[in-house]
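Researcher: Let's continue the batch. This sequence belongs to MFS transporter, and it's 414 residues. Same format as the previous ones, please.
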Amino acid sequence: MAIAAAVRGAAVPALAEFPYRRGSTGFRRIVLALFAGALSTFTVLYSVQALLPALADDFAVSPATASLTLSVSTAMLALGVIPLTALSERLGRIPVMTASLFAAGVFAVAAPFSPSLTVLLVLRALLGLALAGLQATAMSYLAEEVHPRSLGFAMGLYIAGNGIGGMLGRLLAGSLVDVVDWRVALGVTGALSLMCAVVFRAAILPSRGFTPRPAHFAGSMRSVVASFTDSGMLRLYAVGFLLMGGFVTVYNYLGFRLTGPDFGLSQGLVGLIFIVYLAGSAASSAAGRLTERFGRGRMLLLCAVGMLAGIGLMTAGNLAVVIAGLVVVTAGFFGSHAVASGWVGLRAKTLGTQGPAVYLLCYYLGSAAGGTAGGYALHAGGWGGVSWYTGAIAAGVILLAITLLRLSPARAAR
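Model: Same format as before. Here are the structure tokens for MFS transporter:
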């Protein structure tokens, strides 16, 4: 993820004013709080993904319709990031993050009581909007409160909370749905989310590096529009949109294949497969190190090719090969995302635009639109249709990576 993206939007004081360094009690409290916040966010956001077959059966709807329970959340999260970033400049980082986590927890606990799919979708949309508050402010808070020499480590732990939360939500909900129904499974993840919100509020320290500023929504939008004037940024936004659309499609609909006649697995066993999500954390870290050696363009191309290769492996009829393919897809996605988001942060810093916020907008809109469209591919052609659809997406990322390789060295370095 882009550390530079976080630093850019923050009001950064002089080095001597940074009170929290790695190893200090304050640093540990901040890291614990943000880790808990990230865990809460991605646990409730993605827990529904492991329950899509159960939701489709219970509400008697298609996989594509069931996938809206995730798509509406990610769409509202995307739309909320830019305005809530501006709002946090006026109200402060901690009030926005605290309200975000507790509101999301309440919506998550209420969701299992939905009498209809429509009510569930409304609650999931509100949950996504609430979660945008943490995504919009967490990295800026870290950049304002943590000493620059300790910032990379703090960011790494925050990103780890994102990945672990995404895995835990899928794993916990998928494992529980075999024992209890989907409502109880969602309720458990919602309760966990509220517990994490309590931990966040108890551990977080008051802002010292934050200076309130007017919430200039018009200025923010001008900066957003300016970010579309750079061709390299446009291609990176497209990379984020396509990457997330393909990745979420694989995870949305794999459960339908594995619980179907081809493999006949239980929901609990399918839930355990989400452990391969850990491959993403390792891939993000490795991509960051290897980028320094091979360059951003080459690493993006390599990771995108890996994602395409994993999609090919997942067409096999052997479960071990399918799981191996899922590991490769996951690693390829996270590696690509790490490179692309970092590249956006660097170019945005040079251009002075809201590039990272726009990238997040495109990234989550890709999840909402691409993931739902993947359901129609499943309906039209089964897993073969999903493979062609996600393969075309990966091929699109490869083509974009090739065009990014052709940037002049000076422009590519931005």
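Researcher: Any comment?
Model: The mean pLDDT is 83.
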